[in-house]
Structure formats: C-alpha cells, structure tokens
Amino acid sequence: MKFRCERDALVEALGTAGRAVSGRGGMLPVLSGVRAELLGDTLTLTGSDLDLTITVGASVSGQADGATVLPAKLASDVVRALPSGAVTVEVADDADGGAEARITADRAEFTLRVTSADEYPKLPITDADPVQLDAAEFARALHQVTPAASTDDNRPIITGVLVAAEEGGLRLVATDSYRLAVRDLAGVTVPLGERSNVLVPSRALREVERQLSSAKDTITIRLGERDAAFEVGTTRITTRLIEGEFPNYRGLIPSSYPNRLVVGREPLLEAVRRVRLLARDSTPVRLVLSNDGLELLAITQDVGQAHESLDAKYEGTDLTVAFNPEYLAQGIDVTPGDEVVLETIDALKPAVLRSSESPDFLYLLMPVRVS
After folding, report:
1. Band of the pLDDT at 32, cuts 50, 70, 90?
2. H/E element, 266
C-alpha cells in the first residue's frame, strides 16, 4: 500500500476514526489500531471498539492499493508532528516477516510496526432503510438532548438517548435521573420496523454532533434491529443499540403548574454563571420567585455568598427553589429563544424550563432540598 496526501487531511481522518478505538483492557489487541484500506485514490480509515465504529473516507493520491492496521494513537501523533505539506505513507514487508509503515514528509521519516488487516474483525453493516434529515436541525436537537444523558456505565439504560416515533414527528429523550431533556422534530419520519423506539448510546450521538458541526446539508440515518448508522459526508458512525426499557419519562412531567416565571434567557444565563462562582462543592443556586421579579442566591459557608436580581414576570405564590447550578445553566443554555419560561409546583417537585417561542423543547430539572 502506498499513497500521498496533505498532512492536515490525514491528521483529521486519523483523529476522527481514532475516537472509536478501544482504550479498554481485555479487548482484541488489533482494536487499538485503525484499519487503513486504499482503493484507487480513496483511503478508508476505520476505528472501532465493537460497540462504536467510525469509518472515514479521504481523497489521496494512491500509488498501490492495499490494507493494514496502523497503531492508532502513535500514527496520529506522528503525522500531526510532521511538517505541513505532503505526507507519503508506504506499507511493506519487513525482514522479520511482519510489516511496517514508512511515513515521510520533507526530511522527516518514521517507521511503525503494523498489523495485518486480516486480523481486524468483521464489523456489522446496518442495512436498514435510509432517511435523510436536515443536518443543522438534527445537530441542534442533539446539542439540546445529549448533555442530559447519564455517563454512569453502571446504569447503561440511561446512558442512551431514546429515539421514538411520535404522532407528527420524531422525539429525542435523555435523562440522568436528575434532569430530563425532550426534543421533538416535527414532520420527521424514521422507519423503526415493529418497534416504536430505539435506544442509541449518547456517546455515539456526541460523535455524530461533532461531525455535524461542519455539515451543511443533510445527514443520513439508518436504524436497524441491533445497530444504528449515521452518515455525514464521507464519515459513517455505526453503533450498537442499547437493549432494555427506557424509564417512563412521561409520568415525570406534570400536566399543569401553578407557578410561572418568564425571564430573558441571556440575562438569566449570565446571572447563573456569575452566582455559581460562590456555589462551591454541592452548594445549589437558589431562585427566589415573587411578584417583584427574580433573585438568585448562592451561599457557601466559610467562603461567602453571591446575590443578583433580575427583571421578570411571575405568576404564582412566593417561592424559593434551588437547583444544581451546572444543570440549571446547561438547561438555560440549550433552550431556544430570547425568553425562557420556568414552571414549578413547589420547592420539592420537578420544575420545567421551556422556550416562550418554541414548543418543541422541554428541560425538566429536579430541585435540591435546602434548609
């Protein structure tokens, strides 16, 4: 195998495929590498840990077709360290009966031991019917929902994002048991077979969102029986679906709220970020709701306190409710529009953040008990 390409393009492709490479012990040793296959002027790089697979296509100047497995991190580090410009990669047998990759640029030269591509496992191919979605809209939905998914591998069900077929569109739902994010995509229909929903690992969707940051047109989605695939340009991300029953999130959302606050989104977000500077360790930020407006308060013993008031419209009984400042700030940040609506029942029941302009997003947040 031999090809020539620009350093920056190769760095980006190796980095993208390498994010799926296994870093866990006990996996197949070959999965610590990136499979590289050259056909004509197309280089295909694949990284996988068997749960998540990322395949990237790159245009190169091909000179000899072939396939090999490069050491993922080392190859990426080496290419990144090379001087800018053209890089040549050539794989050939060595004197010990193995193979090595010779990587050169200008007067720099590296030789890396490589593994036979035959040792790389066969990976599943999702053959479900494809559906195309607007890339920018799907990216916004992922940005709003995926932060609410749990990162605790001891509770795998809630590390996923529920993708559900709803009347009139598609719904994305995520929770870590402290907060819940729900985003509707109106008019979007994705074939799910006999099921009404699937559970996609949030780790995979974060990679999809990363790829969508530079996408301009559409994303192609395939939701199979056991796997899901997302195609963005020349990148394909495939992931195993999570098996199990997602929590009954509908029962957490009250049908009505007696207390309703309407406040500017940016002023509230900036105030929460300022006040949280004094919310150390597990100290919550308190929201004092009254007809006079909104007050934010954070008190940390032996450190100090922060206080800020905001103009706001409030309907309901005077109430003080406290939240984890990070979760609150994240919810405000991803809520669209110039104003947000905070609806509450009392200081101990879930509160809901919504946009006053868009009904397609909801962020439910559990309050923190304070004395």
Report:
1. very high
2. helix 265-275
C-beta of residue 348 within 8 angstroms of C-beta of residue 366:
no
Q: How far apart are CA 3 and CA 62, in angstroms?
A: 4
Provide CB contacts within 8 A for 339, sequence distance 6+: 262, 263, 264, 265, 355, 356, 357
Q: How far apart are alpha carbons 57 and 36 in whole angstroms?
A: 10
* Amino acid in position 265: R
CATH of 253-365, one of 1.10.1660.10, 3.10.150.10, 3.40.50.1820, 1.10.10.10: 3.10.150.10
Tokens 């697979």 -> residue: 53
pLDDT tens column, 161-206: 999 988 888 999 999 999 999 999 998 888 776 678 999 999 999 9
Which residues are within 8 A (CB) of 77 and not within 5 positions of it... i.e. 6 or more apart?
none
The model's pTM? 0.91
Question: Can you give the residue ranges of every domain in the chain?
Answer: 2-119, 131-250, 253-365
Task: Check if the beta carbon of residue 18 is closer than 8 Å to that of residue 73.
Answer: yes
Spatial separation of the C-alpha atoms in residues 54 and 39, rounded to whole Å = 18
Q: CB atoms < 10 A from the CB of 121, how many?
A: 11
Beta-bridged to residue 113, according to DSSP, are 100
Which candidate, 354, 345, 336, 342, places its Cα nearest to that of 314?
342
CATH of 2-119, one of 3.10.150.10, 3.40.50.300, 3.30.70.330, 1.20.20.10: 3.10.150.10
**Alpha helix ranges (H) inside 169-224:** 202-212
For residue 291, the SS3 value is coil
List C-alpha distances in Å: 245 to 128, 160, 209, 248, 253: 22, 11, 25, 9, 18
In sequence order, what DSSP letters do the residues of 110-134 get, joined into one string?
EEEEEB-GGGSPP-----SPPEEEE
Q: 268 and 323 in contact (C-beta within 8 Å)? A: no
Residue 243 corresponds to which tokens in the numbers above?
């098996």
The CATH architecture to which 131-250 belongs is Roll (3.10)
Question: Which residues have a Cβ under 8 Å from the Cβ of 124 and sit 6 or more positions away?
Answer: 226, 227, 238, 240
